[in-house]
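Task: sequence in, structure out. Protein: Six-hairpin glycosidase-like protein.
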Amino acid sequence: MKKKIVLAATVLLFGLKAVGQVKKHWNIVHANEIAMDLSKEENIPYSDNIEMAGKRVAGIISYEINEDKELSISREIFFPQLRTYIKTNDAEWKHYRAYFKDIYSDAILPSIIQNNKIYAPGKVSKVHINGMLQFVHEPVGGVALTRTFFPSMSERLFVEQWTLTNTSEQEVNMLGRTNSREKRLQGVKGEYTASVKSNIKKEINIPPGGSYTFSIGISATLNKESEINIQGDEYYKERLEFLRKMKTSLTLETPNQSLNTLFEFSKIRASESIFESKLGLLHSPGGGRYYVGFWANDQAEYVNPFFPYLGYDLGNDAAMNMYDLYDKETNKEYSNIRYSFEIEGDAPINPLDRGDAAMIAYGAAQYALASGDRDTAEKLWPLISWCLEYNHRQLNEAGVVASESDEMEGRIETGNANLSTSSLYYGALNLARDLSRSLGKPRSLEAKYRQQAKQISKAIEVYFGATIEGLDTYKYYKEHQNLRHWICLPLVVQLFDRKDDTTKALFEKLWSENGVHVEKNDQNKKISEIFWDRGTLYALRGTFLAGATEESIQKLTQFTDQRLLGSRVPYVVEAYPEGNMAHLSAESGLYCRVFTEGMFGIVPTGLKSFECTPRLPKEWEHMSLKNIKAFGEDFNIEVKRSGKKLMVYFTDNRTNKVVKRRIAEGKKIAFEF
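Result:
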């Protein structure tokens, strides 16, 4: 219990520091790695944490480096599929977070004896993040140490790998002693055993310049499952193979290394949080709270539509599994669809309507088009059409969609009809119109969706269009008088009538060092402190689409430097103060979509067609997206400055065929395979 209290205090402290003055602690090694140099005084003391995950495990590694460069590590390891019982006096909500988990300090580490003394790691000289977390220690007694943390991608196992290197001119002889331990627990699925094991040798002999590597594994088994063997380096190779897949697909190249690197990191975080479950593969947010479950916003809307562009097979499998599960929840009565499947679907259904049918329709229609696959699109069509009809039946007397809440789930007021739900419905209608044409549906259906989109567009303008805080933008709900982050959504779905003042509202009124705040002028000061990165990422996608290229690249660069090189790295986060800026997975998908759909302006118009409106910042000469897997293809988009115009090159990587287009800045290109 004491360990948990200490950890909570550390996280809270970290959260408070995160909203203060930010400075760069990290530097970019290359597009797939950042490092922190502890020889620089401004980098110590330092503390942070990072989440990593595989199909059966998640780990949040918290680390703290003091002024003497001494490192302390706390390992919070989750085995999400293994649910535990709660106590009779626990609150009922604890059922939802009752994962088999524990926090492990350095007390689990094996003992290493050198010259009749216990080897203690030296001062930390560098920290590296590259899809794994790595600490480099200075030599002690002629022995340097590198510690690398990573999850197994397939087993209930989290690994800490030690590499001891002899920096002296004589052979080093050491003795290794394991510190194995077990914890047994009767859980919902049977008997759970959490084990800490090491494959360290009893006698270690390292020649000059040589190295010796061993691992410490934290694992779990259910009932009579065999113990997980960590003798070789198969789990390290497994993680490297996952990272290789991320590196070789959907690569961003710009003159700004920070953007390139956070894009690379975001592919990792967006893709690793996929878990096995009795429902099949499930993409889950993570963050120490949300595993083996999914939500209409995080998965259906935010991250699933990204996977066709990345071409990640597990991501696409999890996306289709989730949409299929939602399709089974549709009903002839058109009562609202559940907003989440928690605890592998065993959690009670929450009846709250957050506008989830709009989220699902918008995300599923994007996914279907970007998949480029007719069979996939046909499977998704019943869900998309049901969600659109549900929204149509929810239109109020003003012609906008009524809903009880939005994805904030009542944290702050949303009225009886909010801008988010109606905007997503409008976007979904336009996508469904193009999808119906691609699938050869009756032309009357295409005309119906076009007309309904026209009607909701007018209703959004009349009902939500307003002068708020002196700007010609939108109110979030009928009675609302403050600017809110989701005023960006009309821009995202290409409603541009109020784009200029909406951009000003986002970048001048709502912006802070942590991006767009939910609100800034609320009478409740606590609300004015709140930021959710998803709002910032949607805002940036929308402002690029709206043509505010220079303002957008300035804000995107500032925000990226903060999340990649500042005090809370290396991913975008969920929120503050809620969750203490947890590394939720789907937000990383949204970061990548700032580029695919925002800066490059890719908007699907059919299963094999899209529009592209590239936004090349004036100080850049070029930018490219390579190995795009959307529409069932493998292609590159390269944009180069050509005098006052832009040259856009579309390259089919399977045939090496290149299509060139010379366009004026801000012009749209229609492309069909």
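The chain has two domains: 32-244, 248-612.
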